[in-house]
Design goal:
homodimer; mainly alpha; Arc Repressor Mutant, subunit A; 8 helices; 3 strands; DNA-binding
Chain lengths: 146, 146
DNA sequence: TATTGTTATACTCTATAACTATA
DNA sequence: TATAGTTATAGAGTATAACAATA
């Protein structure tokens, strides 16, 4: 798979990043999902949900960009695995709040560690390039997201 | 979604890149797949198959990292859409070679353009950062992949 | 009336295993 | 015997629509 010349250096950069992602064997996200015996969407939910916080099903549907009816099934399976729990919202009895269990928080930490592992090509870059890459991406998301 | 401090700057960089990908609304790959009315795997097949070349079903299964039985269905649907065609391999009558049609090559070019579009946070970086990002990633994949 | 979450349903995608045809 | 591709089948994931409870 080769990358065509691009006018915008950012497009060329993103093309190379995609090539790196597509070249991983096995593909990262399905592999980590299988490792923890959760679906890709279940993995994204665990990845996103912060320990010590709780989110409504509706908000999870927005985060996962999927239909609310689907969140029921995703949460059902993660709850059956003991990774999350449903709680009542004292302020609105329609709402169910989802929170990580202790086991879920442990799983989340390991999931994040695995997904943050840079691919071999990135990890092999010299120190100067790796720090420059980090600094550029930090500027891209802004100082508040660091 | 915040990013924890990482020891390795490359891991920190990859975490931010993942945050950028996860923050895209709608998620890029499903959105582009829907735009062309193909499955995510069909999209990856079109993305990968180079115009003027042909690949066996077996090789496509390796590229897509899925079971060979699944390739039959993926190829069936893309063929029905007129984007690819099955050809016979003169050297081995068991093998079927898959190649892009003209329409498929057009779709591929547009698919690649759409998938290579950098996310807003990357596109908004100053010129110096965008070229530095490209140069670092070019070094990561090596001069032969440019 | 509108919203949250659930259920019922149908459709797509996927892997496993068995099969055919070639090698 | 082994390999390429297909078919049969079942399981998992998804969206749409209809529903109950609550606001």
């Amino acid at each position: 798979m080769t990358v065509e010349a691009q006018v915008d250096p950012a497009a060329e950069a993103w093309a190379i990043a995609l090539e790196i992602v597509f070249s991983e064997r096995p593909p990262r996200v399905p592999a980590v999902a299988a490792q923890f015996d959760v679906s890709p969407m279940g993995l994204k939910l665990l990845y996103s949900l912060e320990p010590g916080t709780a989110a409504s099903m509706r908000r999870l549907a927005d985060t996962l960009f999927c239909d609310a009816s689907n969140v029921t099934g995703i949460v059902d399976r993660l709850e059956a695995r003991g990774l999350i729990e449903r709680r009542e919202d004292p302020g609105d009895r329609r709402v169910k709040l989802i929170a990580l269990t202790d086991a879920g928080a442990d799983a989340r930490a390991e999931i994040r560690r695995r997904l943050h592992e840079p691919p071999a090509q990135i990890a092999a870059l010299p120190e100067a390039d790796r720090t420059a890459l980090r600094d550029i991406l930090l500027r891209a998301v802004g100082p508040d997201r660091a």
